[in-house]
Amino acid sequence: MRWNKPTVRGSSLHGLIGRDAPASTAWVRDQQLEEVRRAMIRSLSGFSGCEVARMNIRLRYAGDIEALWYLRSDLQSTLAPLQGEPVAKNVIDEVTLLFQGLLPRAVGAPARAPLS
């Protein structure tokens, strides 16, 4: 007779230590972080090449909002030869607005405009 012995094969670590398994193994990401990420990646759509592919990967795997903040200058450097410096700067200015309220003040995030 077998008494409720956990098997290593087919069991999760949570099951072995007697805890309930989490409902999902997928990470739940902040929607605003993903909105910023999508906007940055969208700015690269329609372009190809090694630098574009590399920038796309860096944006996709940036772990947090601070990492995306610091990737803005690299994104501008990637876009400038493709679209021209003025257009690349406008894209970065639009992306920068999406960071409002998401970063600590020490990082240098743009401040929200005071309500009049």
From TrEMBL:
Domain of life from the UniProt record: Bacteria
- What name does the UniProt record give this protein? Uncharacterized protein
Q: Give the organism's phylogenetic lineage.
A: Bacteria, Pseudomonadati, Pseudomonadota, Betaproteobacteria, Burkholderiales
